[in-house]
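Annotated sample (chain length 319).
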Amino acid sequence: MDLLEIKDLTTHFFTRTGVIKAVDNLSLNLQKDRVLGLVGESGCGKTVTALSVLNIVPYPGKIVSGSIFFEGRDLLTLESKEMRNIRGAKISMIFQEPMTALNPVFTVGNQIAEVLITHLNVTKKQAMDSAIELLHSVGIPSPEKRVHEYPHQMSGGMRQRVVIAMAIACKPSLILADEPTTALDVTIQAHILELLGQIQQEMGMAMILVTHDLGLIAERAHDVAVMYAGRIVEQAETAELFANPLHPYTRGLMDSIPKPGEARKTRLRTIAGTVPRLHDLPAGCKFIQRCEAKSKRCEAEPALVEVKAGHLLRCWEAE
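Output written by the structure step:
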């Protein structure tokens, strides 16, 4: 049985300018111990998908329909108290900006301890001792000292390690990592990604890795789902997708990456245009305005179909 099964998830934002269809009829499956990469340009609905799993979509957003089965239970049918018991304990999230994820007026030790006290019914002393061990496990030096520091006293890389420590404190089954290294410099990014990979393997957790970095996906994910305008347009095992990208959008993303051995003056290919406004989506295929291979039949919406074992595609090319 899949650890996570998302069926026909639809999450909209109801604004004065119209209904923003951030996630539209999305379905995903994730098995235990696997890493699923969720990729696409900014504004494609990746972060809203992760927030929907935890049912913490901010106002004026609302999960309109669908189901999210986690360990066999539909999270969207649970009472608020039941869902609070799952957040942080069974499912944790690593946000892309640690300064917004951490409370500036509490020490990092107190913030980690709060997670442990809330979910594991331990004493304050036990929680602080565990906080020190967690800081040590994520590679923070002198954790006995750092546990008493505030977020502003730490570097960006240190703060992100604290966020990771909070996320793994209760040994969750699933971690949602939303652009976990975006705010960090390249060297620190590599250290954080290595740490996440090590923790995921050691603890046997499943992970959804939200990113626009295809290089990161190639290195860290077992499977990859490509999102565009709130929909999955292609999904496959990582090796298969990189060897055989079928959707014009997927191919466009890959063509925009510098290739080893290419002349430095070679211009990178780009995808023409921008992601359509989610409250004014085109009829038919949502990629039609930017697609170089569009035809008359693209005026009708294609379904997501399995074109070969484990390889899904939403494009009329599937025929």
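Annotation: The longest helix spans residues 186-203.
Annotation: The chain has eleven helices and twelve strands.
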